[in-house]
Design brief:
The complex is a heterodimer of chains A (255) and B (308). Chain A has one domain (7-253). Chain A has ten helices and two strands. Chain A is an all-alpha fold and 255 residues long. Chain A has a two-stranded antiparallel sheet. Chain A is globular and about 60 Å long. Chain B has a six-stranded mixed sheet, sandwiched between helices. Chain B has a four-stranded antiparallel sheet with strand order 2-1-4-5, with helices on one face. The chains are: A mainly alpha (255), B alpha/beta (308). The A-B interface holds A 2, 4, 6, 9, 12-13, 16-17, 20, 88-90, 92-101, 254-255 and B 17, 54-58, 73-74, 76, 79-80, 82, 84, 86, 88, 90, 92-95, 99, 103-104, 106-109, 151, 155.
Chain lengths: 255, 308
Amino acid sequence: MNLSYRVYHVFFRNLISYKRYVVPTFLVSLIEPLFYLITFGIGMGAYIGYFGGKPYLYFLVPGVLVSSVMLSSTFECLYGTFVKMVHERLYDSLIATPVSAEDAVAGDILWGAFRGLISGTLMMIVAGFMGIFAASLLNLLLLLALMVFVGILFASLAMIVTSVSPSFDFFNYYTELIITPMLFFSGVFFPLDKFPEWMKTLSWFMPLTHAVKISRALFSGSFYPGLAVNFLIIFGLEAVAFLIGLKMMKRRLIK
Amino acid sequence: MRLMKILVKATDLTKKYGQLTAVDAISFEIGQGEFFGFLGPNGAGKTSTIKMIHCVSPVTSGSLIVDGAPAHIDNRALKMMTGVIPQEITLDVDLRVHENLMVFATFFDIRRSEAKKRVAELLKFVELEQKRTSKIDELSTGMKRRLLIARALLNRPKLIVADEPTTGLDPQARHLIWQRLRQLKEQGVTLILTTQYMEEAQQLCDRVVVMHKGKILREGVPSRLIADEIGREVIEIRIAKEEDERIIGHLSSLSCGHERVGDSLYFYCRDGQDLMKKLLEINLHNYLSRPASLEDVFLKLTGRSLIE
């Protein structure tokens, strides 16, 4: 493992190159979750009515928020990284400088997490306009921290997939078989209580489930001890995925 | 040469990718300030060798010392003093010309004010001042290659590693790049070059090695290699193979060697005058006489047949 402060140089490079794509990516980051909020929240919410004493939208926002972080950081470290690695050969020039392969990959993971944070923050602003806020200012800050953790987790997982991917097509397996089901099995759109036991077990293995629980608590302000377990699972998985992602990408980059 | 400080020393250097041996126990020394060329056909092991020298590919076995330290992928100090001109164009297409250089400078921890100064100097050096704010897509291949050279010089390297730096360029662009690289020699920079263009090697290199199938076949100063392996002149005769015996009988006493490849018979000579006279005597006019080049050495050593 050869990590250094040069991670920042890689992050900075991404930031500079990003300025040309700010408008389109802001729009994409915003439109997809907004689409969920409008169709499910307002359309379906009209049928569902109140949900645990509050309109359905209150149930929906915390989950859609962390989902948008997941989607943004996942796509950044799948497609974004793959283009830089295979098409633009950016990694090849990076590792010929004092920036190590680990620095380069970690810089991209942090960048993916940052993209997730941007998407999540945009969502939070939209939710604010709809009248839905985190329970307190402290909770708002904790929510931002949660988004960073969720971003690094999904960016690292995506990095592992990218490290073994021969082409773009390969990403479909991951997005269709893992990421999309995760959206529906993690209690984003409806509570998991009515699931049969095996589905509850399955959802427990989905990292997004734990993120949704914490997010929901930060919005509602009602905390319970189980949240610590949810956080430890996210943090533990994240640490492991980060290290494996770095190792596998290094193996791909250095021959 | 022997008086020079040795910058790169390889002993039994080997590189394997799985079962494939790309570099097979080669040994060589490169002096500081020397322009050193690796010649060889595709797959000879040139790129693998220089990738180990500039620390992006691990050594499988043997030793490789660069500036007193073992070359290793985590050797940041060596990467700090090395400039790399890659074979592929690996410019950052998301960034404009000057941004490419400014961002690259951060990778070497060059301060912003200093980087600005160097970027201005280098854009001038490679004659790209006019293209400062252009997008990479708007540059010609020659301009992109020049920008790669500017990028490789940002950290004021002691060692420059150039992997086929003029591939795909027209003659003007190629000559400009040669001139710029020669200018660096005056500043005491060491250049390690791989090339398939024999003219490039003759233009730039103090010393070359010819590689083939992972091994070094010959090493030496280009002009000496030509004199030793070929002679001074080459005479090519386009004639059917059936005539070989008769012609060789007439000419062998006048040449250093001969070789039959496809439709041509090659004679290698110190002095072609007598041989050409003889050719006219036996009524053969269909010949071509030209000075021997590094290309002849290369083809003689690595074979004239196609290498896939």
